[in-house]
Amino acid sequence: MSTAASRVLVIAEAGVNHNGSLERALAMIDAAAAAGADCVKFQTFQASELASSRAPKAAYQLANTDAAQSQVEMLSQLQLSPSDHEALQAHAAHRRVGFLSTPFDLPSLRLLTQRLGMQLLKVPSGEITNGPFLLEVARTGRDAIVSTGMSSLGEVETALAVLAFGYTEQSAGCAPGGEAFSKAYASAAGHRALRQKVRLLHCTSEYPAPFAEVNLLAMDTLAAAFGLPVGLSDHTPGTHIALAAVARGACVIEKHFTLDRALPGPDHTASLEPPELALMVRNIRDVESALGEGIKHPTASEARNRAVARKHLVATRKITAGESFSRDNVGAKRAGAGLSPMEYWSVLGQSAARDFEPDEPISV
Predict the structure, then answer these.
(1) Residue 200 CB: number of other CB atoms within 10 A?
(2) DSSP class per residue in 284-350
(3) Which of 14, 50, 245, 297 gives 250 a disulfide partner, CB atoms 3.0 to 4.6 angstroms apart?
(4) Calpha distance 138→160 (Å, rounded)
(5) CB-hemisphere CA count at 13 Å for 258?
(6) Is 166 left (phi over 0), alpha (psi -120 to 50) or beta?
(7) Contact, 169 vs 139, CB < 8 A?
(8) Which helix (H) or strand (E) holds 100?
(9) Could you give all domains of the chain from N- to C-terminal order, each with its CATH number?
């Protein structure tokens, strides 16, 4: 989980909100950079590799795209070419914003790692049970951010076991399979590889996600179960759930954005527009700053106000030299300086060394 010393990685998820247009995708990089995001992320797939001709659409996809289209037909209009990816990567470097993309199939994984040289991969929620794909992700040796939407804790553990095997395969010396995965996951090398290379994202895979189904406390469950950094892939409307996740210790926030929510396409309606994305980034940085280091102590600004706000022992009436301090002549008021009221009982009964005027701080 993140600490005060670590910075939340903010990923502006462009996804497929470019609608297949390189020009719009480039403009989305500009918007993400202007908003202050750490990374802008796209989705890399070959429609025919990702979905079969019989694959149905999700309800949100039916609602936001041509219902007569099949899923693979919809996807074919949203994919980007290898040369498009190269142009996007170069433009992101020019704008000094990180470039990420999520591979959904093995050819796309090879494109991102071999042709584009990406060192960080995002594994989407839909691939958490795709063992062969997870194994190839780990075999690249790249770091991975793994989304866990739609999954149970056991399914996450199984996915991590496959990754542990893939990361340590050369030293494992055995063929892939359930027993080998379990052995790798239980090994010290497997644990070390996962800690070094994997971050988990809690996620509710609905667009938009209902607030009542977000279950932010599951972030704590994931962190406790696996000992890995945990963040949130947030599909809720607005930005406040992302901020709550940061306050709970999220190390990564991923949020869909679009240039215009009114555009046609499956994900636009569940996405932020650029001004909202910029506000979210600013607010995340404010929350990070506000979390502090966890030690309870007066801050620098509080130290300036302490003398003004706290009370001190003062004379409640004129006290003459030699008179005993008592409940009748000593009280606590804001005075700017003097003895703490915690000294009240030790002062009572002592003799005044000099005269004190009303409201004058007591000294002994």
Answers:
(1) 28
(2) HHHHHHHH--S-----HHHHHHHHHHSEEEEESS-B-TTPBP-TTTEEEEE-SSS--GGGHHHHTTP
(3) 245
(4) 10
(5) 18
(6) alpha
(7) yes
(8) strand 98-103
(9) 9-291 (3.20.20.70), 300-347 (no CATH)
Measured CA to CA, the distance from residue 343 to residue 340 in angstroms comes to: 6
Neighbouring residues of 151: CB distance < 8 A, sequence distance ≥ 6: 125, 128, 129, 159
Q: How far apart are CA 69 and CA 57, in angstroms?
A: 9
Instruction: Please state, in angstroms and rounded to a whole number, the distance separating the CA atoms of residues 74 and 76.
Output: 6
Token readout for 276 is: 């909202």
Whether the per-residue pLDDT at 2 is higher than 50: the answer is: no
Q: Which residues, other chains included, contact 305 with Cβ-Cβ below 8 Å and sequence gap of 6+?
A: none
Question: Tens digits of per-residue pLDDT, 315-324?
Answer: 999 999 999 9
pLDDT tens, position by position, 38-67: 999 999 998 888 888 788 877 878 777 777
Q: What pTM did the predictor assign?
A: 0.89
CA quadruple 120, 108, 127, 144: dihedral, nearest 10: -10
